[in-house]
């Protein structure tokens, strides 16, 4: 195995940081319901498996996320333990990280919180505007609280 040169190492470190920032922007976009910010996270033709079925294209991804989160009082998505594998060409990557997502809806009754924890598995590409998610799979590992919190109010 050959060791990367110093410029290659620096470029790889920059890519890793850019991908970590992309993951953080995803969380902020969800918690603020910021469609424009979320559009800067995914490719226009991205796909995602975020719970039920597969969403095709950014508009379907946004529709799914907005439908789950818009009726909440607040949400907080936290990520950690991120692993990033850059392809040799430096133009694609895979990433996985753990997440914990807290959802709060005060009108849900006595138990107003629902926590979902799991991991995101991503395929990423380096586009002209920077790193973007080409496909995201959400894998739930555990939940706690009232699942009715994320159900749209009747």
TrEMBL record:
Record domain SnoaL-like: where: 17-137
Entries under CDD domains matching the protein: NTF2_like
Protein name as it appears in the record: Unannotated protein
Lineage of the organism: unclassified sequences, metagenomes, ecological metagenomes
């Amino acid at each position: 195995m050959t060791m990367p040169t110093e410029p290659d190492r620096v470029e790889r470190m920059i890519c890793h940081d850019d991908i970590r920032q992309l993951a953080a922007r995803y969380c902020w976009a969800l918690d603020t319901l910021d469609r424009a910010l979320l559009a800067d996270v995914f490719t226009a033709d991205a796909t995602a498996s975020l719970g039920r079925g597969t969403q095709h294209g950014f508009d379907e991804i946004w529709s799914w996320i907005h439908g789950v989160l818009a009726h909440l009082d607040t949400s907080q998505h936290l990520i950690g333990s991120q692993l990033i594998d850059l392809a040799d060409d430096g133009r694609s990557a895979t990433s996985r990280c753990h997440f914990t997502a807290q959802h709060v809806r005060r009108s849900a009754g006595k138990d107003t919180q629902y926590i979902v924890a799991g991991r995101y598995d991503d395929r990423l590409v380096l586009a002209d505007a920077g790193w973007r998610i080409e496909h995201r799979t959400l894998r739930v590992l555990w939940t706690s609280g009232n699942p009715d919190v994320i159900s749209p109010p009747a």
